[in-house]
Amino acid sequence: MPPSPHRAALSHLRSVDPILGGIIDRVGPCRLEARRSGTHYDALVRSIVFQQLSGKAASTIHRRLCEIYPGKRPRAEHVLTTEESALRAAGLSRQKIGYLRDLSARVATGSLPLAHLGRLSDDAIIEHLVQVKGIGRWTVQMFLMFRLGRPDVLPELDLGVQNAIQRAYGLKHRPTPKDVLRIGEKWRPYASTASWYLWRSLENGEGQG
Asked: Considering 26, 53, 57, 84, which has the largest number of Cβ atoms within 10 A of its Cβ?
């Protein structure tokens, strides 16, 4: 068996945080990995579609959106010329259609270059992408984790992470984003792995239903 790419992360997290270590033991092997297929634009489209939806509903809408286009790949110039009725029929809200069109317009005109993102720091990528309507800090953090595979992302605004921390640490109230950053400081430089385990702990019935 080849060594797990997450071995160093798991060793660190267990040593600095026994509570998180218990979650790691219950959840099992880490399956966090970046989605390398497609383009950065594809990944941002997917992130916008998935905002504030359950995974299953978002997956259905994303699949319907992709099916509109040749090769099942939306391209910026195509999204700009697609009738709103077709996008609505795929399940997109008017708000998200606006977000997708803003992203697509910036990509199509070259005002939002994406090819160089992998060479930027996490903070620089956040600053670059939040120019787009509908892309906030949380959405860029998901891009950093699941597209670029950045190891030290702690999505402090994420309700799942907040709920999982409240349950795991027996807190009376859901932690604020500041609380999440304070509690998670010891997880660095492997906050992405810690976040992944917190999300999985909810699925395992250790958190909200």
From this structure: 53
